[in-house]
Every structure is written in structure tokens, then in C-alpha cells.
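Lecture notes, part 5. Sequence design as translation. It can be helpful to think of inverse folding as translation between two languages: the language of shapes and the language of residues. The source text, in C-alpha cells, appears below.
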């Protein structure tokens, strides 16, 4: 079974090879991999053709889009706190990483992003971008030199200036990104010191990471097949409730309590260690309404539901949630009965926990099959209870609405051969889309990131985008608005 961590190491190796490629290596590739290269070349041509077609449609499909070229790939992207609101745009923190080849340190990057408000950007402007350029909407604000590659970033919902990161180690690192000093990432520079270190895994914990929406709890899964829970409550100060505190950082109150600045980073032991998986745990997620309930998925094809009040064993275990490794899971914030899973079998499945039993029996209530490669990330929309996104190794980020599955109206408006429920496909990336995040402050706004080592030999692409509201608004509303422009359209057509 090919795990996420296995794939990541292969990609890293490939990227280093490409960066330091020699004539000998090129000749070896020519001689030994002609057929493979021919096949990948045809695939790349197909990707490029689709991309060219997509770019021509950007002014029609999108209300706003910003394209930002990354020198180094980022395996994670997350929205941070909103800093300010203005008439035509808002400013917000954005968390990224730089996964380097070792010539410079790996970093956790805090950027400032200008998010343009709906119906502000001119259609002709949003499609005029250079794929090799950096976006004027994204500015690096601070660099933290990370001890090892940043595999995943997650922010604390109650205080989004506190983030957790995973690297190739058993520990989870906690950072107060506003308090951390800005560093210059040069070869030989010492690592930044995390504000907290969460211990408890017995082997590397590389991907599975979640922060609780109701309590300052952290959840992680790893190669040791365990799920580990921590509370960082005692390590976060109460600046927010202190009326004498006037200088607060963005992102609501609180910061990491420092006990002794001269000592090493304080460590926190687990609140609980939960056993039930038979292989690497690839993703974890809290129940939106309870800090005691959470779920996990892994390379054993299992979906497991846990309750910290019921002991360290599974409450529900779905033995064959998919036909391959599971890579990702998300719990619906609007309806905590619904759970999404994504897998190496290219599908997304939706489970209703009321249908699951402790004996391992449980079928998904729907299978969403629209990707042509392994699904890497799934996330419910904060804006509509039935909408979610899924990104995959095929380079697409699909937006689905399960309310539209099987409805006559949906069948009439869907493109031919389009999977049921799929109503938008973001095709702006030309390589695997490794992460994306819905913006909680700006409705229907998404940040997504691709690792482009296969298509361009290195780097990555960050895109911030919002589809046109004509796509997701109720049909009667859209028709009424278009009716207002009908005469104008007829006049323009007759002139041409």
C-alpha cells in the first residue's frame, strides 16, 4: 500500500534529483524510461490542454482569482485571522510552508493576503496573470525556520494565531506565530524554537493533525497506528479576558505562556492515546460539537469513531470504508452526523454515523466518483451545509453539493458525463492539489496549493479564488438578475 508519507518521500527524492540533475542522469532516463516518459508526456499534454482551456474561461467562471508562484512546494495552506476590512478588500493572514531540497532551511511562512471583495475585480484582470510570477495580493510577512519539513499546518479555531505543525518526527509542534521572531532562512541557520512540543507518539506522526473547534485540544495520528489527544489549555494565557491588556495580536486573545525563556521548549504529555488502527493513521478530525468525540482514517482502510469518555478503544469501526488506503476525513460543521472520507481509490464517500454500528458494519450513504487519481483532501464548506470540496492527485479541486444528487433540476443542468453532485471543477492547478482551505471570513473563497514537481520540475502554485455567484446562487435569483441585463445583451449582439 502506498501511504501519503511514502509518496511524500518519493516526491522529495524526485525533486532533489531534478534540482541536481546531471547529463548522466538524463541519459539514464532517456535509455531506461522512454516508454514511461512518453506516457507521462502525453498525460502532461492533456493537463496543459485542459489548463489552457480553463484559463480562457476564467473571466466567466470566477468572481476573483489570484495566482501565486512558489519557489518551493508547500504541502499545506491555511487561513489565519482577518486583520482588517476595507470597502473593496480585506487583509488576512495566510499560513504556508517551504519544503526545500536542503540548500536552505525548511520554513513555516506567515503571509499577508489581500482578499478582494465579491464583484469588485474586473473580469479581464483576473485572467491576466503570469504563471511564473508572484501575486501582488500575497506578501510574505514572517518566516519561521522549521525543524524539518512542514507536512501539515492546523490553526487553533479559538485563536488562529496559534498553529500546530507536523514534520517527520513523533512530536507535534505548537507555534505562537505572532510572538515568534522573524528569521532569515539561510543555510546553517539554527531552527526556530517551538513554543510547545506535544509528545506521546512512538513513531513518526507526519500528516494526521486537527485542532478542536470547542476546546484548545490537539489531535494527531501517526505511523505508530495510534491516535493521540492533548489539551494545551494550561499553556494559553488569558490575555483576552484581561482588561489591562491593550496590545493584543491579531486573531483574538491569548498566547503561549512562557515559563522560562532560557530553557528548551516546554513539552506536554498526552491526555489520551487511542489504539484501534492496524496501519498508519493518515488523518483525524474532531466532532464539531464535542471535544470528547473524534474520528480517524488510515492505511488499513478503516474509519474509526472515538469517544474519550468511553475509554481508549474504538466506539465504532468501519472495517472497509473504502477499497484502498484512506487519506483524509472531515466532519460536517453544520450536521455532526455526516462524515466525509477520501481515498486512494479515487472516491469520496459520505457516512451517516447513525447508520454505523460497533461491529464494523456501515455503508456510505453516497459515493462521489469524479476524480481520476487518489483523493488527498476533503473539506465541508462553512457557507452551505450540503457543499464540500475534494482535491486529488489528478490536479483538480472539485466542489460538490449532495443536495443536488438525483434531483431532476440538477440532472437537467449538469454537463454531460458529469458525476452527480459535482457542480464546479477548479482546474487551475497543473499538478496534484495537496491542500485547500475554505475562508471562514469571506464566503465561497478558497485557497489551494499544488506541488508542481512532476509538471515543472519543482516549486508549487498557490491560488486564491472565488467562483462566480451565478454558479451557486438559487436559479430563480440568477435568472431574475440576468433578465435585468437582457436588453443590454440584445443591443450589444445586434451591434456586433
Amino acid at each position: 500500500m502506498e501511504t501519503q508519507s511514502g509518496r511524500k518521500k518519493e516526491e522529495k527524492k524526485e525533486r532533489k534529483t531534478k534540482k541536481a540533475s546531471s547529463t548522466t542522469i538524463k541519459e539514464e532516463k532517456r535509455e531506461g524510461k522512454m516508454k514511461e516518459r512518453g506516457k507521462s508526456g502525453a498525460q502532461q499534454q492533456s493537463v496543459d490542454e485542459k489548463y489552457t482551456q480553463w484559463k480562457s474561461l476564467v473571466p466567466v467562471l470566477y468572481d476573483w482569482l489570484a495566482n501565486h508562484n512558489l519557489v518551493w512546494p508547500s504541502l499545506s495552506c491555511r487561513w489565519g485571522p482577518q486583520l482588517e476590512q476595507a470597502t473593496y478588500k480585506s487583509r488576512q493572514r495566510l499560513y504556508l510552508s517551504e519544503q526545500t531540497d536542503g540548500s536552505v532551511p525548511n520554513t513555516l511562512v506567515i503571509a499577508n493576503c489581500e482578499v478582494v471583495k465579491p464583484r469588485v475585480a474586473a473580469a479581464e484582470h483576473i485572467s491576466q496573470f503570469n504563471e511564473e510570477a508572484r501575486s501582488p495580493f500575497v506578501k510574505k510577512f514572517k518566516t519561521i525556520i522549521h525543524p524539518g519539513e512542514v507536512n501539515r499546518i492546523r490553526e487553533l479555531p479559538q485563536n488562529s494565531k496559534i498553529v500546530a505543525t507536523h514534520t517527520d518526527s513523533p512530536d507535534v509542534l505548537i507555534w505562537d506565530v505572532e510572538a515568534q521572531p522573524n528569521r532569515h532562512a539561510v543555510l546553517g541557520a539554527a531552527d526556530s524554537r517551538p513554543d510547545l512540543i506535544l509528545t506521546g507518539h512512538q513513531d513518526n506522526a507526519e500528516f494526521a493533525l486537527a485542532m478542536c473547534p470547542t476546546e484548545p485540544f490537539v489531535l494527531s495520528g501517526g505511523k505508530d497506528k495510534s491516535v493521540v489527544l492533548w489539551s494545551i489549555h494550561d499553556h494559553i494565557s488569558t490575555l483576552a479576558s484581561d482588561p489591562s491588556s491593550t496590545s493584543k495580536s491579531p486573531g483574538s486573545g491569548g498566547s503561549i505562556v512562557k515559563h522560562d525563556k532560557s530553557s528548551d521548549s516546554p513539552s506536554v504529555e498526552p491526555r489520551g492515546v487511542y489504539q484501534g488502527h492496524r496501519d498508519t493513521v493518515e488523518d483525524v478530525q474532531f466532532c464539531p460539537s464535542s471535544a470528547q468525540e473524534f474520528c480517524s482514517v488510515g492505511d488499513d482502510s478503516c474509519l474509526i469513531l472515538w469517544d474519550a469518555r468511553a475509554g481508549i478503544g474504538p466506539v465504532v469501526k468501519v472495517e472497509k470504508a473504502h477499497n484502498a488506503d484512506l487519506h483524509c476525513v472531515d466532519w460536517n460543521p453544520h450536521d455532526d452526523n455526516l462524515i466525509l472520507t477520501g481515498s486512494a481509490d479515487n472516491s469520496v464517500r459520505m457516512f451517516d454515523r447513525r447508520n454505523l454500528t460497533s461491529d464494523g458494519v456501515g455503508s456510505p450513504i453516497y459515493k462521489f466518483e469524479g476524480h481520476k487519481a487518489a483523493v488527498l483532501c476533503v473539506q465541508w464548506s462553512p457557507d452551505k451545509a450540503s457543499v464540500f470540496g475534494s482535491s486529488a492527485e489528478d490536479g483538480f479541486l472539485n466542489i460538490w453539493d449532495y443536495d443536488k444528487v438525483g434531483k431532476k433540476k440538477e440532472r437537467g443542468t449538469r454537463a454531460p458525463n458529469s458525476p452527480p453532485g459535482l457542480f464546479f471543477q477548479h482546474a487551475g492547478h497543473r499538478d496534484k492539489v495537496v491542500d485547500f482551505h475554505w475562508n471562514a471570513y469571506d464566503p465561497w473563497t478558497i485557497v489551494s496549493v499544488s506541488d508542481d514537481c512532476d509538471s515543472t520540475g519543482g516549486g508549487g502554485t498557490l491560488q486564491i479564488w472565488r467562483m462566480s455567484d451565478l454558479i451557486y446562487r438559487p436559479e430563480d435569483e440568477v435568472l431574475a438578475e440576468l433578465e435585468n441585463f437582457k436588453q443590454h445583451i440584445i443591443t450589444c449582439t445586434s451591434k456586433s
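The translated text above is only one of many valid answers, since several sequences can fold into similar shapes. Confidence is low (pLDDT under 50) at residues 15-39, 238-253, 409-413.
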